[in-house]
Amino acid sequence: MKSAISKLSILIFVFLLSGTLNAQDFQGKAYYFSKTTMDMSRWGRGRQMSEAQKKQMEARMKQWLEKTYVLTFNQEESMFKEDEKLAAPVGGRGQSVWGSSFSAGPQYKNIKTKTFLQDQEFFGKQFLIKEEMKPLQWKMGSETKQIGQYTCFKATASRPASEVNWASINRRGRGNNANAEKKTDSTKAGNVADSADKPAKEEVKMVEIVAWYSPQIPVSQGPGEYWGLPGLILEVSAGNVTMLCSKIIINPQEKTKIETPEKGKVVSKKEYNEIITGKMEELRNSRGRGNGRRRNF
Predict the structure, then answer these.
(1) Residue 66 has what pLDDT?
(2) Which member of 1, 135, 168, 285 lies 3.0 to 4.6 Å from 228 by CB, making a disulfide possible if both were Cys?
């Protein structure tokens, strides 16, 4: 009985709030804390590190593994970006360039036109990642939990991994040396050696997603690339990354204009990841060779 009354109260609240959302000047802001866990054993030197060394490395990388973001949204558009006021300064000029190159830039979503845009800088070059928003096949659950003052419902989905596989690049680099040794014996082994030199086709890695959304804020928005649920996503976990909403402001006194990113070379996310992969392989291969020729973007 109490459960039925509670759900009825939520529906009534949503109905009343929907009248507010119909206003053209409606806007909301949601602040998220993001935490990324890293398995140090997957990295070359990480396997040889002691537990004390791993903890020291994680402490150094904390500023990249823990970040605060703000999602500015209305009924159709949203902008998700790192909160500059709370962003920790990065020590050293080289570390600053390195960190900014691998931090996700501002992400714009328009759920009406299904447009995703990301303003991204990589080693001094400006890119504009453009994608058509394809909805995830969410599986709606009945499980609930409280996040702040909001009742949230659970939804799950899965999607192919779209991030750069750094461990794969590292393995590929070590594999090049092994392949070079194999080629010296290719005349003896014939076609067997040739087939061994060809890299095995990597299986598509799927990422499991768990989201918690609240119908009390009936907008189909969420942090990052997540959207498509009947309520604002207040928490989402995908792979080794978790984002949790810590504060929500509905109709703040000072409105923020949600502007569409326009600057930079237009690329798809796949093309951008290929650019990153190529650049990282170039930097890895040129390590120890001095100032060799570098590939332009």
Answers:
(1) 84
(2) 135
109: tokens are 């979503």
Q: From CA 56, how far away is CA 46, in angstroms rounded?
A: 12
> How many C-beta neighbours within 10 Å does residue 261 have?
18
* Beta carbons of 101 and 118 less than 8 angstroms apart: no
151: nearest Cα among 4, 6, 296, 1 = 6
Residue 240: Cβ within 10 Å count: 12
The helix/strand/coil state of 118 is strand
The answer to whether the CB of 210 falls within 8 A of the CB of 156 is yes
pLDDT at 2: 45
Which pLDDT tens digit goes with each residue over 97-147? 445 556 778 999 999 999 999 999 988 899 999 999 999 999 999 999 999
Length of the chain: 297
CA distance 20 to 11: 15
Distances (CA, A) of 87 to 38, 63, 103, 284: 20, 8, 12, 29
C-alpha–C-alpha distance, residues 221 and 109, integer Å:
9
Indicate the range of 56-60, 215-219, 244-248 predicted with least confidence. Answer: 56-60
> Alpha-carbon distance 115 to 261, whole Å?
11
Structure tokens that stand for 229 in this block: 């649920």
Q: Cβ(27)–Cβ(219) under 8 Å?
A: no
The residue with tokens 């804020």 is 217
Q: How far apart are CA 229 and CA 236, in angstroms?
A: 12
Q: 27: closest CA among 212, 261, 225, 258?
A: 258
Report the candidate in 28, 25, 93 with the shortest Cα–Cα distance to residue 234: 28
